[in-house]
Inverse folding.
């Protein structure tokens, strides 16, 4: 677990021509709408939140490559592989940095770009582009209202015993009305329930690094998916032992 990471502020003053990067690697996407797809992961450093269950190292690098160096590294890690269309920008929290130039360059190069975000920060991106997907995994009671209309899918991490019976999602965490694409956290979850076909909702068991607890969390996700029509996603990369 990496829950003791320090919270990092958003750094938008820089021009995005270089970024703090933890690592760039080629793997199979393990969760969410692109699960099972080969992908290049660009993991950016730092997060503005400090979730106690965080399972990712995004603080141990001081690498700040420019966009050319990022492109070169992507080529290196996919050497000898079939062309890899999908690029996952993750973290930490990607919107903590100015990722617009990187995203624009990737889209112009014919990539499909998936951004994995906690939904609390915003950077303006070419939102109309069909190859740009923002997957938000809410961890707090409110999302950035500017980002909400651009969310492609929601992914909730469920822990048994901390789930709201009314909608099968974590208590105290933001909800979105999928029809109006607005944050309805303050009004409770009811507004979203009938509309969630418009916005895919994934439920994923929390990894507590404890076999018994993980079994219980998986069962809670199964039940929530069956009861409320959500899509179950597991962290497949952990099952098949890749990053
Ligand atoms: S939002 Fe995600 S990356 Fe940030 S601390 Fe929480 S789990 Fe970790």
């Amino acid at each position: 677990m990496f829950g003791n990471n320090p919270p990092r502020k958003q750094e938008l003053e820089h021009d995005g021509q270089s970024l703090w990067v933890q690592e760039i690697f080629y793997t199979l996407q393990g969760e969410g709408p692109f699960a099972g797809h080969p992908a290049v992961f660009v993991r950016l450093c730092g997060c503005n939140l400090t979730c106690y269950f965080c399972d990712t190292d995004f603080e141990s690098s001081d690498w700040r490559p420019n966009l050319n160096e990022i492109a070169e590294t992507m080529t290196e890690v996919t050497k000898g592989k079939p062309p890899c269309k999908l690029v996952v920008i993750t973290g930490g929290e990607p919107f903590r940095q100015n990722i617009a130039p990187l995203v624009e360059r990737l889209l112009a190069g014919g990539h499909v770009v998936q951004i994995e975000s906690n939904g609390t920060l915003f950077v303006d991106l070419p939102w109309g582009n069909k190859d740009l997907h923002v997957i938000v995994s809410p961890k707090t009671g409110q999302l950035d209202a500017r980002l909400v209309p651009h969310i492609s899918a929601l992914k909730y991490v469920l822990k048994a015993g901390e789930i709201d019976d009314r909608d099968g999602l974590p208590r105290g965490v933001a909800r979105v009305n999928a029809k109006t694409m607005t944050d309805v956290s303050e009004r409770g979850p009811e507004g979203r329930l009938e509309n969630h076909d418009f916005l895919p909702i994934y439920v994923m068991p929390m990894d507590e690094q404890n076999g018994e607890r993980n079994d219980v969390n998986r069962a809670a996700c199964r039940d929530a998916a069956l009861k409320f029509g959500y899509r179950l996603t597991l962290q497949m990369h952990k099952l098949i032992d890749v990053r």
About this structure: The radius of gyration is 17 Å. Residues 143-237 form one domain. Confidence is low (pLDDT under 50) at residues 189-195.
